[in-house]
């Protein structure tokens, strides 16, 4: 692997990651170091091991071998829900939300886990409940504006256009104030305008956060990422800026050999 960038603080550090599924070797020894504040892409042809690596970095899949630290947590040794509670957010390819509920209600549901009040406090409208709800309302207002959803708060989630639903998925994630965000193919299925507006949103959201993206859309990767790791056949090939990584001879050869993506 060549061209790794230097940086003092890493939000994500994984070393020696190996993973097998029965006889299939998905990852053959992958190291990743992602600087705090970076927008970092995992790319490569189909079957390269990107999704497996991504799931390992955010704690959903456990590696067979290797260590993973995110925000100094030992992610490989923690249950996924604990990782999620400690500053790590993730969106999924299939949008996870309550379709019949409004945009605002979806934000409220996402916030219950971090609220302090009991059911009794809510029923009795005790001060602890009022404080939680005031904090929620302030946060929700901020997140709705950031995500361009402030005019849509009372709309059922299922009535939103696909690209807007994806922005709601980001809003839901932002309610828990993640410091590291994992985005799984965020612009897949979006039209050109939706993609452009999503990229704009990600630039805003990236301020003060680290973002890790798996994405097949190379234009989106080029527009967003400071740095990419190109994986081929379970191995890291190059870690560099998108423009330089996509000129690497092994990367060009790997994409030419695949029938799915084009590297430029
Ligand atoms: N749950 C699983 N069971 C068996 N094999 C798996 C499983 N998940 C992944 N694999 C295999 O591991 C390898 C890496 O898959 P992975 O999905 O991580 O690649 P990818 O780069 O994300 O591919 P794509 O771009 O097509 O999503 C592939 O050979 C895949 O078939």
Automatic annotation (TrEMBL):
Top-rank taxon of the source lineage equals Bacteria
Signal peptide range: none
All copies of the ABC transporter domain together span 12-258
Query: What is the protein name stated in its UniProt record?
Result: Branched-chain amino acid transport system ATP-binding protein
Q: Which SUPFAM superfamilies match?
A: P-loop containing nucleoside triphosphate hydrolases (SSF52540)
Could you name the Gene Ontology cellular component terms for this entry? plasma membrane
Going by the UniProt record, its keywords in alphabetical order are: ATP-binding, Nucleotide-binding, Transport
What biological process terms from GO does the record include?
Answer: D-alanine transmembrane transport; L-alanine transport; L-isoleucine import across plasma membrane; L-valine import across plasma membrane
Which organism was this protein described from? Mesorhizobium australicum
Determine if Nucleotide-binding is one of this entry's keywords: yes
What molecular function does GO assign, one term?
ATP hydrolysis activity
Record's PROSITE patterns? ABC_TRANSPORTER_2
One Pfam match, given by its short name, reads ABC_tran
The family database entries (Gene3D superfamilies) matched by this protein are listed as: P-loop containing nucleotide triphosphate hydrolases (3.40.50.300)
